[in-house]
Amino acid sequence: MKIVVQKYGGTSVSDIKKIKKIALNIKKLKKTGVSIVLVVSAMAGETDRLIKLINSVSDVPNEREYDQIISTGEKISSSLLVMALNEINVNAISLDASKINLMTNNIHSKASIVSIGTKEIKKYLKKKFVVVVPGFQGINSNNDITTLGRGGSDLSAVAIAGILKADRCELLKDDVDGIYSADPRLYNKAKKINHISYQEMLEMSSLGSKVLQSKAVEMANQLNIKIYVKSTFNNSRKGTLVMKEDKIPIKDKKVVSGITHDLKQAKISIIGIKDTPGIASKIFKPISQSGIIVDMIVQNISTEGETDLTFTVPKEDLNKTFKILRENKSKLSYKKLIKDEKIALISIVGAGMKIHTGIATRMFTSLAKSKINISMISTSEIKISCVINQTSCKKAVSSLHKEFGLD
Amino acid sequence: MKIVVQKYGGTSVSDIKKIKKIALNIKKLKKTGVSIVLVVSAMAGETDRLIKLINSVSDVPNEREYDQIISTGEKISSSLLVMALNEINVNAISLDASKINLMTNNIHSKASIVSIGTKEIKKYLKKKFVVVVPGFQGINSNNDITTLGRGGSDLSAVAIAGILKADRCELLKDDVDGIYSADPRLYNKAKKINHISYQEMLEMSSLGSKVLQSKAVEMANQLNIKIYVKSTFNNSRKGTLVMKEDKIPIKDKKVVSGITHDLKQAKISIIGIKDTPGIASKIFKPISQSGIIVDMIVQNISTEGETDLTFTVPKEDLNKTFKILRENKSKLSYKKLIKDEKIALISIVGAGMKIHTGIATRMFTSLAKSKINISMISTSEIKISCVINQTSCKKAVSSLHKEFGLD
Questions:
Q1: Kind and range of the H or E run holding A270
Q2: Average pLDDT over every residue of A237-260
Q3: Option in A76, A83, A143 nearest B62 (CB)
Q4: Does residue B31 lie within any of the structural domains?
Q5: Do A246 and A311 share a structural domain?
Q6: A173 and A26, same structural domain?
Q7: Given CB atoms, is A83 within the 8 Å cutoff of chain B?
Q8: How far apart are CA B270 and CA B308, in angstroms?
Q9: Exposed (0-12), middle (13-18) or buried (19+): which is A33, by Cβ within 10 Å?
Q10: Alpha carbon A112 to chain centroid, angstroms
Q11: Nearest to A62 among B56, B62, B83 (CB)
């Protein structure tokens, strides 16, 4: 039994016309003889509508009830898709988390999948039913509904593909038709990538590309499930295959696969701080304890026992971080705090960096030629990130895209 | 432990402001020391929105998926109410049908309640939590969600009050504040009824008064649970108590308790049908098999072996009924079919009819004085119904209201 797992995102099911179109595509696919499991997101806008309702009741809503509310959208779209399939004589059934024992841990709104049962799914696949699973949700050991975080339907799909030993997991999108070498909305010479490794995709996801959820890529890597990102409605267009690096055809291997940009970070500098052992821990402990994720950290060379420290946090956490630093001013004894919200994080990602040298130099030179100043640098095995001025973002993407032969 | 079960209808929870107001009322009630179970409807308009979505996908939607979709509205409003209670420091939890084992039979969209577990509810009541149950829904033996039909939250509330041996079940409404002697929107001299018997309420519900669901009244009667219908937000106003007839104070006993009208019926006449044994069965069998409920039936006196037969069906089933009759024309061999959608069903309801005579005559005379023609009559132990022209509806209500001393 060849099993295909397909996930349809919120913009793909945003209205009934689209849902009916998807049903027709699935009918065609079913005629090829494969068994089909669909994972469906909530209709675009629905989850936001529910969150708005919740926020008008409470700033710190009860987590269990929160998940109970925001999980309803996927149930609705799943059942609508089943109805649309039935209308064109395709047998289908929706099976929610409690039906397929999609168990998670107990961390509401950001739950991790622990296990998934296959009995119910396989029972209906054997009966030639299309099985539709509401994405983004599971149940905990107390049988309460949990949700997997924004983009969590990707994770549902990959996990289900893994447990069913599906050949691959198709993530169908209406707004994009694959992974691009840069954001095509920012830079129109961006090219679709045919093959990309899990590691590269992971870096791109965490560096601002919102096409795939990081957790889903991580799980696909662990379970060795190929992810195929493609267009929902344009069947003729080829998408992007996310897979093991060593299986990628040589012709598709590049030194740098993609350029990402992230405008959602802010920079904080702590000026004139005593350069004593343990000072970094004193600064970052209260920040991380508040659940704020610090990304890049740069410490200046110390002069006369004093130093400056610069780091980035998500823009939405900027005020909270400032408040924490001010509350700890006496303990930290710094001279002043500077914030900068007008930054862009520009990164180049490529598995080729592991074997090629001089990539960083090429990046810095290329940015310098475009008169772009770099204020922070961070590197890992397969990526180099620079913080630059936000207004130079587009120029940086285009010059790096050219520099690394991606145009 | 004194338990109060309250049910809030859709217009009572139609926006967040109202939900917060209800939470405040409940906080006050809780301070009196009672244990509180709330049953909540979907926010007004939500169920209609979902049905519209469904209808744009399918004319005959899959019943299981249908119930899965339309049951989401009550889950959302229940969790929102829990959040609103938490905001003002009242402990609360929502427990859905699967949590409290609210089991039903397997008739989707019109399910009947089979049993309800009390363990989970009592556990949280003991912990001093307010328990909130999404109304209108249960689960069948297959663990699929079922729904109880329009107005089904009334039924949920009465059944829960019954199983918990609650003193009474309060049904709180925003659009009405009790049961009236006639529809106050049609006739402004209608008076609120302080006490009414289950039997009278049942007749009124099935004769067009939409305040309470018939099934809920029936169950309250069986379980001997008093229903108290009152205003959600106007606490000072007294509502209506639906209870056993023999417990109603003498001063509140009337010959006729209420006048109802129903504009949702249509009349069909079959002209020139052979008056042979079994003809009625031949006519009504295929109609009832299609799930159409025939209410009144009148057969004319037969002349020369031929007769006419007139009956009423819900307006929405008129075309379907006509189609069935046409399909069976050769078998039934009638001369022609006549339909009339412009009718009103006017009824007087009162337990006093059991011991008083001449009530029917007073009704007919009163209508005749107002020059209203009666085209069909039907009686039961405690009600008399007449079909009249729709345009005379208001005049009929006012003259009967006066005639039976209800003004």
A1: strand A265-274
A2: 91
A3: A83
A4: yes
A5: no
A6: yes
A7: yes
A8: 6
A9: exposed
A10: 15
A11: B83
A81 and A13 in one domain?
yes
Chain B closest-CA separation from residue A52 CA (Å): 11
- Using the predicted structure, report yes or no on whether residue B208 has a pLDDT greater than 90: no
Tell me what pLDDT residue B275 has: 82
Q: For residue A306, what is the domain's CATH number?
A: 3.30.2130.10
Instruction: Quote the tokens at residue A142.
Output: 């107390």
A310 and A191, same structural domain?
no
Q: CB contact, 8 Å: B334 with chain A? A: no
Task: Test A56 with B94 for CB contact under 8 angstroms.
Answer: no
Residue A121 pLDDT grade (very low, low, confident, very high; cuts 50, 70, 90): very high
The number of folded domains in chain A is: 3
The last residue of a domain, from among A251, A275, A305: A251
* Spacing of C-alpha A294 from chain mean position: 17
The beta-carbon neighbor of A86 closest among B62, B93, B98 is B62
pLDDT of residue B385: 93
Q: Considering only residues A295 and B397, tell me which one the structure prediction assigns the higher pLDDT.
A: B397
What pLDDT was estimated at residue A14? Answer: 96
Cβ distance A354 to A381 under 8 Å? Answer: yes
Q: Which residue of B has its CA nearest to A82?
A: B65
For residue A384, give the nearest of A266, A297, A260 by alpha carbon. Answer: A260
Say if A101 is an interface residue toward chain B (CB within 8 Å): no
This complex has an ipTM of 0.83
Lowest-pLDDT range, A66-75, A211-220, A257-266, B272-281? B272-281
Structural domain harbouring A228: 3-251
